[in-house]
Every structure is written in C-alpha cells, then in structure tokens.
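Exercise 3.2. Students should predict the tertiary structure of the chain below and write it as structure tokens, then compare their answer with the key that follows.

Predict this chain's 3D structure.
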Amino acid sequence: MTARVSGTRSGPEIVGPEAEAHLDWLTLTEALEAGHYLPRAEVADTFLYRGKDTLLTRSAWIDGLGLAVKAATIFPGNPAAGRGSVNGVVNLLSDETGELEALVDFQLVTKWKTAGDSLLAARKLARPEARDVLIIGAGNVAASMIAAYRAAFPGAKFSIWNRSHEAARKLADASGATAVTDLETATRRAEIIATTTMAQSPLLMGDWLAPGTHVDLIGAYRPDMREADDNALRHARLFVDSRATTLHHIGEIKDPLERGVISEADIIADYYDLPSGRFARQSPEEITICKNGGGAHLDLMVAQYALQAWRAR
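Answer key:
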C-alpha cells in the first residue's frame, strides 16, 4: 500500500507502511490511554468461512473518535509467495459524517496495536526500574515487543526463549538480545516477561515467577490456547486490556474461570479503569499479569493515531 494524501473530494487518505517512520511507541500508548477516557466502544466481529479460508471483520465505534472496520483474510494456503497468510485493510470512517476517511495499512495497524497494547500495560504495571526482560517466542510479535519495551525501559537487557532455539538465536542476533535454552532459569531472573507463542498448553509456570515480576500474556487468542499455568494466575494480581474481549473468549482467562481457579472478581481492572487509577501496581513485591486480547476498538485507536501522525509528518 503506497501512502498518499487525498482531499475529501478525491477520495480517502491512504496510510501505508511508509507511515511507520512517523510513529512512536510511547506516543502510541498515550493515544491508547486517551482513547479509554472516551465513551466505551461498541464492538462486533463477524466470520465467514470457505474451507480453511476465513474472512474476519472486526468493527468498532467510539463516540468522538470515529468508526473502524478491519477486514482480515486468513488463507493458510495462500499461493502468493511471500505475501503471508493474513492480509486485509483497516477502513476508518468519520464520526461526524460516516464517510470513508482513510484506508490504513493492515499490517501496520496490527503490529502497532498488538505491541502497543501490552506496552501500555507494562508502563502501568511493571516496576519502573525493571531492566531484565524475557521474551517467550521468536516471531514477528516478539520482535515488535523488543522494540516497544526498549522505548519505555531504556537500557533493558533482553533474553529470548523459543521451542526452536535456532529461531531464538536468529532474533537475538538481529536485535542485540541473548538466546537462552533454560526457560525456568530465565523466568526466575526476569523482571518483565512477554509470551508471544501459539501454545495450546502452558509454557510459563507460576512457581518460577519472582516477586515484582510483570507478565504480558499476548499469544493465546482462542478458547483452546493457554500460555501461563493456573499457579501463575493464582499468584498474581490479574488485569486485562478489555473484559469484553478476554473473559469468555480466550482460554487464558476463560478456562480457569470455568474451572473455578479464578473468579471474575479476581480481574482487578481493564483499560476502561485507567481513569479511576485501578489499573496500577500497588507494591514493588507483587506479581502482575495482564492478558492482551486485542479488539477492534484498539484497531480504531491505533488507526486514528497512525492517520494523525501521517498528517502531521
């Protein structure tokens, strides 16, 4: 997608990957926080299927910010070499007129939404002096989290663990991190942990978490996926980015809720509690966990941030 600026008479603005040079992780988290001071978003998802192929549309409307429809195609057997299995576009519509305001690059919004979501949690819940960061997983999200954490925790040292050590080593070489093979040892010394895997059963054990650790759970997005075990949830103060998109939808929270390991009352806050001050660390010793569930309202906030940054370039 090639970026250009169009007047309203000639069509919507196009915000392409070139806009990334004008984005900033800390400013993004401030935009996400500001978005949660607005009226609560209305969100809806739809799914269409053709065999193994999926069309997912995620829609959000925030009064005062606008509307967004993020259309994503998931084609596992995509014949276009190098194009990936997930593609799409974010349609940004005016809150005042309902007109199409901008088409924003899908990969840009997805990358910055996913990492920015968890960076906001870390800025609120991790100890400010934390510098030992463990990334579990070695894919694109893991790489984005390294960049995001570096913006908020300058001088941080990163360790990467992955089931495939070769993948961990490649990301470590590219990012200036250290690839590790012993997950338990790395977990015990970490001060911030991000899980960015496709695991269906827990990799992160609560008995390994040291006092004061903050954990961003990112990878699990289906009801049958877990990255942290029950003890991790029992030992920690629990937060989510949005109750609406996590509690009864993602296995990380849904499964232990259904089995009585935790209750809904154990979820202390989501981002809509930021104005009240509840989304915060209370002591240096407590373990905090935040589950990143994503959601179309965050796509809307990120797309608007990207549009405004592109316009101000």
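Discussion points: Residues 115 and 145 are 5 Å apart (CA to CA). The chain is about 30% helix and 25% strand.
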